[in-house]
Amino acid sequence: MNGKLKFRNALAGKNTGRPPLWVMRQAGRYLPEYKKLKQEYSFLEMVKTPELAKEVSLQPLKRFDLDAVILFSDILVIPEAMGQPYHFRDQGGIEMEFSLKGKDCIHRLEAEGIEEKLSYMKDALLLIERDLMDKKALLGFCGSPWTLACYMIQGGSAEGFPKAVEWATHHPKAFEALLEKISFALRQLIEMQMQAGVDALQIFDSWHSLCPKEKAWDWSLKWIKEIVENLSDPCPVLLYAKSSKERLKTLCQSGVSGLSLDHGIHLQDARSMLPCPFVLQGNMDPAIMETNPELVRAETMRILDSMREDSAHILNLGHGIRPNAKIECMDALVETNLSYPY
Ligand code: CP3
Fold it and tell me: How many domains is the chain built from?
């Protein structure tokens, strides 16, 4: 069975045999061919040039027999399209050109015309689709309204995003107005990705854990629910939101079809709370990809054993692959999954 069918079956809770496999930041700094391109082009040049975005998106597939591809892009292209550009700090992390301060800043953000401004993304997706020839699944993605608001209010990466937390706590009206505007922009982005034929969408609520328990709904999940409920066509949505076991059920109330879990949660614990066909994706520790193939093999076996015959499991890392991940470790992950005895 080809990767696309396998992936689609898992999304529908009907997979048999080994689980489908993909990893985030698969087109990342651990691949020499990616690093080579980066000597010639900046990250955003690659994101915004459809031919290059296609090439980078497909680089991992030339090495590894993965079942799905995620578009090479970034969650922060939305703030950029709304008028708040960003760049990478030399020492790591994100710097927005300015931070949002008060109502005037929100008024100035432009949430209209996203499809036109990000047309490079649709073009890249169409080029990728053409190359995949229905053999591998294609994933679109976006940041959650809350996670994007964290970067936009804070003005870049910062431990705990204190300014965003402060706004959400003390200026709820302005905060709501901002999240509404971001959500409006995200809906256009997602519709565009769906029109380009993605098999699933992943929403990254990377900073979910900054929402206190009693605020998780108002600050983040209700906005995700609104997006998921208003899709013009049915499309499976996976949610990445680092959180504890206690919050899993609340995350599901956002209406998503699956959760991406990190290694802090046992897949079987999650499964006992969230029965099939709810999709569980994960959950290898990305640090293991920096060790050696034997450890990767053992850890992959452990995960596969624990989810044996689970029809809605997608094998994945708990978070994105790191720059120091080893190619031979990726090989071990893929090979162990392919040769697992069912
Ligand atoms: O897997 C893929 O290749 C798909 C593309 C993808 C990227 N970023 C490319 C990328 C996806 C799905 C993302 C998501 C993303 N981007 C998130 C959510 C996921 C998460 O990590 O929690 C966030 C928060 C961002 C914003 C962002 N972009 C950060 C924080 C960074 C790291 C900056 C740093 O150096 O500390 C990026 C850079 C980035 N995005 C890279 C890639 C391949 C590395 C770019 C490089 O250095 O070449």
Answer: 1
